[in-house]
Amino acid sequence: MRRKVFLREFLGALGAVEIQWHEETDDKISGAVIYEVNDPEEKQDFVWHKSEKDMPDQDVFNLVKLIHKDKLLSIDQIKVTRLELNSKFNKAYDCTKTEQEFSNILESLETIEVPMLDAGREIDAYFIHE
Question: What is the count of structural domains for the chain?
Answer without folding.
Answer: 1
